[in-house]
Amino acid sequence: MIARSELKKELINAGIRPSVQRLAIYEYVKTNRTHPTADVVYDALRDELGSLSLTTVYNTLKLFVDAGLVQLLSIDDTFRCFDGDTTSHAHFRCDSCGKIVDLKIKNDFLAMVDGLDGFEIKEAQLYLKGICPICKRKN
Amino acid sequence: MIARSELKKELINAGIRPSVQRLAIYEYVKTNRTHPTADVVYDALRDELGSLSLTTVYNTLKLFVDAGLVQLLSIDDTFRCFDGDTTSHAHFRCDSCGKIVDLKIKNDFLAMVDGLDGFEIKEAQLYLKGICPICKRKN
DNA sequence: TTTTATATTTGCAATGATTTCAGAAATGAA
DNA sequence: TTCATTTCTGAAATCATTGCAAATATAAAA
């Protein structure tokens, strides 16, 4: 759990004015490490905030991603997820329950790849898919 | 370049009846390693085949992916690409020109990740994004 | 405090890739 | 050929995301 005042500072340092909506969305993404979609964030916050627009959630999350405060995950074809943890790690998505799990990696992503001379790499994502331990036990 | 008769056999072995449309789509994806979208395949083949439906291209590519003959790439948020090469390799997508490039990997993907006990992994994708050497030179 | 300018939010409409669906065409078996 | 099954077609539907213009909130200036 991170203090609101700390989160506020992070936004300001990134050049983002901490409006009520932005701070609430930022707090949600940094506190809940469940890799939520914009829609999930919207549903979770519309009560807390008097009014909230889904458009605002989309715009704000995009703002955070562009500022490097939040990671965008495209592990699912049909919708985008967001990850408040911007450190380098892999993701697993369970085909059965849909849950997304963080995984530690042994080396930097780029150390795994050959032939990168001349490329400027800005982003790297390792996505694994299959069946998670919990779903596997159920079968 | 692979012979049509060979491609036909591959489809039959996978339990897929090699209709005119399916064979043409399969040949396109196995010959052109440009990671095309369904729409690109459709545009490329609609002349060759007298008539072709975009729906057929979507359905057929999905059929190939489910049969393990073709890889589905979700490296771009807004559309899906297909890769006739099903061997394990990474992909780079240039933010400037949009081109997708194949990259060799040093180890198996799973050797890079910790804490996979109990997980059943069916698929692994490493996506890199940034600026490709050609676009870098242009700037 | 009031005025003014600017930044942010809102909600609805539009977009566009993908899927659904029902009928038409092709194929294989009898 | 006839019948049954599979495949293809094209138009309509879906749904996550974005565009846009009006409404609201915030900060600066007076």
Number of strands of chain A: 5
Task: Assess the beta-strand content of chain A as a share of residues.
Answer: 15-25%
Question: Averaging pLDDT over every residue of chain A, what do you get?
Answer: 96
Class by alpha and beta content of chain A: alpha+beta
What's the tally of helices of chain A? 5
Helical residue percent band of chain A: 25-40%
Strand order of the largest sheet of chain A: 4-3-5
Note the main sheet of chain A. Answer: 3 strands, mixed
Q: Tell me, briefly, the overall form of chain A.
A: globular
Q: Report the end-to-end length of chain A measured between terminal Cα atoms.
A: 35 Å
Computed Rg of chain A: 17 Å
The assembly state of the depicted protein chains is homodimer
pLDDT < 50 runs, ≥5 residues of chain A: none
